[in-house]
Specification:
heterodimer; A: alpha/beta; six-stranded parallel β-sheet; 20 strands; 38% helix; globular; B: Alpha-Beta Plaits; Alpha-Beta Plaits; 2 domains; five-stranded antiparallel β-sheet; 6 helices
């Protein structure tokens, strides 16, 4: 089929043409404006790969080194761009390897469409080679999923998949397509999905709730805003900033909410939760009104629920009605998309400054600075800290880089200390805590935003869980900056062993390979830093590199992340040491 | 006040799709909630299925479950009711040796008093059907078990509500 003919035919509405199911899959992706997909071929998806070969001028397929890498790359792509990330895999093990990425995207509300090949429909349920019930397996970790056994059902299924993945509270969708449906020919036409009868992506704001919320906010003497990724997803950053500034309310973030308000903003009082900042955690239990926006009161944020903001009136701006009263009882729930509800409430809000209240945050910050931050960022004792590496990255990036982290100590340190000027700059696995997320997610982020500096920061543990994606970086020439903060330990678990298991370091010590040699094996420029005096220059060299660059920094072996709200404790019991 | 466990019926109106049962049952399984009974049937609206799920749980938790169920893309609406708010029936089937019908006069009295219906009789066995509240079926079972029951089964609870369920109107608003 010639491209020109296709174009002409696409112009005419509802024109059909006879093509195979596999070609239809590719044409659906093109119709959804997909330009990059991540995946790994195999038997049951081969007809689609054959079509991808023909359409390679329209869709760039990125061969990752593992299907899990494909999902995390698709997630990184989605998180930095706000678009739907796409991953594709074969049946059986190809499909099951997607599950971690699906679960991660589900809990972190990331729009992603996964397409899996499936054995031919007559073999379904017969334990055929590479057959697995991926629809059954992925049900609890997808927003929606379905199996397609007829070519004619492919366009509607994929249209629905993209619509559901992106709309409302986003999430991952999986479409499993049998091999016979891929081969079958049918009359193709594509119509975008704009509605599913039983599905309400954005709930109506209940009449009077905006006014009720505004009244409480205007009367508040010690209000605190806690915001999450909802601001980023609904692209409500401007409306949010306007509200924070007009009402003069200190605002703190969950890790997925980071970067929605610049780090340097005077009303940004830092990170919430287990390893968050001292002031917002302490003062959560002192505020008189808690205004939650686009966040879901995760247990890592709230600590012990029975002792969480019990004194406060709670207002919850939320798109997902199932989140209302799920963990924290609200006084006023403002349902809807954050951009719309924040815009609507702004005229109802009185100008305020809350000077004394804000001073309380500053005072507690001073305590945290003396006891924790100073030692993290400006250490004088021997041994590099993770914090000073982040500080050097900040200096070089001037706060403009997108920081992609893995999971563990380095993640908490990076989120605490990275400076963000731009939104969609903190890409991390928040809810699922997926070690191995960082490196492949950084690939997706860099490909979605090639003009942005993307820095992947991992620990020596998580890095090795998806280290094979260095191959993808090399093959794709993705200019990702890769930092491994190496303490030769699974640091976060070791910290818990030190604090709660009397230093019994069961299986947390890592005997590590020559990371520089591995990176160089993939023809990636690489350097290792062990001394403080080498750090600044090495980070500078990395950041100035036009290509991918690997930097290993050997940090102190038994450094701990503080502050810390011990598991099961109240947020106000946050410890500084 | 809403922390005490009690029986609730959860009525779920859904699109009629493969896999939805899996999705809905996973919501209960994940939270370690035992489903007391489950019935899936057509509803008053064409192509709309209705799940009737009976659970023994605290009202606060039922509300959360309703939220999770409604969150599923193909769920149209979910409601919960306590047993006073619904009209419900359960069916029990009892397969019993036919000879007992003639040898044990007591059985005939039990059948009469319980308003049970004889569905079929043949040389070997007869089948009794009893619809009503769970307690009535259990009582009948207890009475009959003394004589020996070859097979016994009880259906899931089915219910209609005393209040109106405005599903058609709801669908109308979704369609617009």
């Amino acid at each position: 089929m010639e491209t020109q003919t296709i174009k002409n035919q696409e112009k005419a509405a509802k024109v059909t043409e006879r093509i195979s199911g596999s070609e239809a899959i590719v044409r659906c992706l093109i119709a959804e404006d997909v330009k990059i997909i991540y995946g790994y071929p195999g038997g049951a998806i081969m007809p689609v790969y054959d079509e991808l070969y023909k359409y390679q001028d329209k869709i760039h397929h990125v061969l990752t080194r593992h299907e899990q890498g494909a999902t995390h790359s698709a997630q990184g792509f989605a998180r930095i761009s706000g678009k739907v990330g796409v991953a594709i895999a074969t049946s059986g093990p190809g499909a099951t390897n997607l599950v971690t990425g699906l679960a991660d995207a589900q809990i972190d509300s990331t729009p992603m469409v996964c397409i899996t090949g499936q054995v031919a429909s007559h073999l379904l349920g017969s334990d055929a080679f590479q057959e697995t019930d991926i629809v059954g397996i992925s049900t609890p970790v997808t927003k929606w999923n379905c199996q397609v056994t007829r070519a004619a059902d492919i366009p509607a299924a994929l249209a629905k998949a993209f619509y559901i993945a992106k709309s409302g509270r986003p999430g991952p969708v999986l479409v499993d397509i049998t091999k016979d449906a891929q081969f079958e020919e049918f009359d193709f036409s594509y119509e975008k999905c704009t509605k599913v009868r039983s599905y309400v992506p954005i709930p109506k704001t209940i009449t009077g709730t905006l006014e009720a919320a505004a009244k409480i906010i205007n009367k508040a003497r010690k209000p605190l805003i806690v915001w999450g990724q909802g601001i980023v997803i609904s692209e409500a950053e401007a409306q949010f900033k306007a509200l924070v500034e007009k009402a003069g309310i200190p605002a703190a973030w969950t890790i997925l909410g980071a970067s929605a308000l610049p780090t340097s903003h005077p009303l940004n009082v830092g990170m919430l939760g287990m390893h968050g900042n001292y002031a917002p955690n302490k003062l959560t239990n002192e505020c008189d009104v808690l205004i939650a926006i686009g966040m879901r009161f995760d247990d890592r944020v709230t600590g012990k629920l029975d002792e969480y903001a019990c004194q406060a009136k709670v207002i919850h701006f939320e798109i997902d009605p199932a989140e209302i009263d799920k963990n924290v009882k609200t006084d006023v729930a403002v349902l809807g998309d954050a951009k719309a509800t924040l815009e609507a409430i702004l005229p109802l809000i009185n100008t305020n400054i809350h000077k004394e209240w804000h001073q309380q945050f500053k005072d507690l910050y001073e305590i945290e600075y003396e006891k924790v931050i100073k030692g993290d960022l400006h250490p004088t004792k021997e041994g590099l800290t993770m914090g000073e590496v982040i500080k050097e990255i900040n200096i070089q990036s001037k706060g403009d880089a997108a920081i992609v982290t893995d999971v563990g100590q380095h993640q908490m340190i990076a989120c605490r200390y990275a400076e963000f000027n731009k939104t969609k700059s903190n890409i991390t696995s928040g809810g699922l805590g997926t070690m191995g997320f960082g490196l492949p997610a950084a690939i997706g982020a860099k490909m979605a935003a090639p003009d942005r500096e993307v820095v992947s920061i991992s620990g020596d543990g998580g890095y090795q869980m998806t280290i094979q994606e260095l191959g993808t970086i090399f093959q794709q020439k993705a200019a990702v900056k890769i930092v491994v903060l190496n303490n030769d330990f699974l640091g976060m678990v070791r910290q818990w062993q030190q604090m709660f298991f009397e230093k019994r370091y069961a299986s947390t010590e890592m005997v590590n390979p020559n990371f520089v040699a591995i990176a160089e094996g993939y023809y990636i420029k690489a350097k290792k830093v062990t001394k403080r005096e080498e750090l600044a220059d090495a980070v500078k060299e990395m950041m100035e590199s036009k290509e991918a660059y690997f930097l290993e920094v050997c940090v102190e072996k038994e450094g701990n992340v503080f502050p810390m709200v011990p598991s099961g404790a109240s947020v106000s019991e946050i410890r500084l040491a | 006040m809403n922390k005490e466990k009690q029986l609730f019926t959860i009525s779920v109106y859904t699109e009629n799709n493969i896999g939805l049962l899996n999705r809905i049952s996973a919501i209960f399984q994940r939270r370690h909630i035992n489903i007391e009974s489950l019935n899936i049937s057509p509803s008053e609206i064409e192509e709309v299925a209705k799940f009737t799920i009976v659970v023994n749980m605290a009202e606060d938790n039922v509300k959360k479950i309703i939220g999770q169920i409604e969150k599923q893309v193909e769920v149209i609406k979910a409601y919960y009711h306590d047993l006073d708010e619904i009209i419900y029936q359960i069916s029990g089937l009892f397969k019993i040796k036919s000879e007992l019908l003639f040898e044990e006069r007591q059985i005939q009295n039990i059948i009469k008093e319980s308003n049970a219906r004889i569905v079929t009789v043949n040389k070997e066995f007869f089948v009794l059907e009893k619809s009503g509240k769970k307690e009535e079926i259990v009582a009948l079972h207890n009475q009959l078990s003394d004589f020996g029951i070859m097979q016994y089964t009880r259906s899931g609870l089915i219910a209609v509500t005393k209040e109106e369920m405005k599903i058609s109107e709801l669908l109308e608003t979704y369609n617009n």
